[in-house]
Amino acid sequence: MAKIDTRRSDLVAKTEDQLGEELGNLKREAFNLRFQAATNQLEKSSRVKEVRRDIARIKTLQSTRSRDAAAK
Predict the structure, then answer these.
(1) Residue numbers of the domain that contains 37
(2) Per-residue pLDDT for the chain (72 aa), expressed as one digit of tens each?
(3) Residue 57: which of 69, 68, 45, 49 has the closest Cα?
(4) What are the φ/ψ torsions at residue 41 (nearest 5 degrees)?
(5) What's in the keyword line of the UniProt record (predicted)?
(6) Domain assignment present for 34
(7) Phi first, then psi: what are they for 27, rounded to 5°?
(8) How many helices (H) and strands (E) are present in the chain, helices listed first?
């Protein structure tokens, strides 16, 4: 549980530009992992789940920030 909290606090500390860059990197990694899985070259299948969840965390944080900015 501590790993998720640490990961979230790391993301909250980043700016919107940094989050966007991180999101792009994770999407690229997700694509590569899907490609490796399709060609049976994937060594660590659990990484697919981690990347998907990290992408969801970033998108949730971005939508929360945009909603908060619109409310002001």
Answers:
(1) 16-71
(2) 556 666 888 999 999 999 999 999 999 999 999 999 999 999 999 999 999 999 999 999 999 999 999 998
(3) 49
(4) -115, 5
(5) Ribonucleoprotein, Ribosomal protein
(6) yes
(7) -65, -40
(8) 3, 0
